[in-house]
Amino acid sequence: MDAESFQEPGTAQGEGGVSSARAEGGVAMDLIILVRHGQSVENALGAGLGPGSHGDALTDLGRRQAVSCGGWLRSLGLGRLTLHTSPARRARETARLLGLGVPETVSPALSERSWGRWFEGVSDRDSPDRLAEARRAAGRDPWDWRPEEGESLRDVRARVTAWLSERQGRGAVVGVTHGEALLAARAAVEVRWRAWPLPLPGGGSTHSPPNGAALLYPWTPGLAPTRRGFLPDPMAADGAWDSVRWQEREPGPGRESSGEPARGRLTGETFP
């Protein structure tokens, strides 16, 4: 899915976006951190997005990614923190390996997109072709194409948006989730931005974070986020906040003091 098709044109902040419900007056900033689970066996095999015929466990690399991400999270000194995870085994295993020292809450809203019967009866050999067919269909109708008995991206955005809205006013929140769910989360949080891809180390970019990576969204009272942090590879992180690549929306002319985020390009890298 390309950058132009990622954002749904004409979406208003109250129609799928997320705004902070926190009161003004010296209240600490909220921080939502969304972590993609570590590499699973299915990921390593390059299998499709089916029901997990190869097992839903993490690989050795996936476990190292989760442990590294947890070490990085602990180095941030976030204080009060809550942890949520998708019900999938690969996500729950990642959440446990983060080692954050807080109980985890299983949140179905963070589940991967349901592909319904799309991969039913498809062999490993044919799975990549079936996946490519799904991508073509989604490219023609990115928001509303729905596999039989599955979910559209709009469906996923609706449940992820509800989860994000409920997290407002709760300090630092970590959610362990999946690739398509993260794509939907970006659509909810970055609703007033163009869908600029996430920069990868060494060049290149992606719309959905790699396994073990994290997205960070600081919230100020009454506004949707205007900054996005990205940790593409926790195994290469070399120091707390300094490892985060920050991108900030540049407001349009005359919109700097507006209570409503404006469309604009993401520029620069700053630190909190």
TrEMBL record:
UniProt keyword ATP-binding, yes or no: no
Isomerase in keyword set: yes
Swiss-Prot/TrEMBL keywords: Glycolysis, Isomerase
SUPFAM superfamilies reported in the protein's UniProt record: Phosphoglycerate mutase-like
GO cellular component annotations of the record: cytoplasm
CDD domains, alphabetized: HP_PGM_like (cd07067)
Ranges for region Disordered: 1-20, 231-272
Gene3D superfamilies xrefs: Phosphoglycerate mutase-like
Entry's transmembrane regions: none
Full protein name: Histidine phosphatase family protein
Lineage, top ranks: Bacteria, Bacillati, Actinomycetota, Actinomycetes, Kitasatosporales
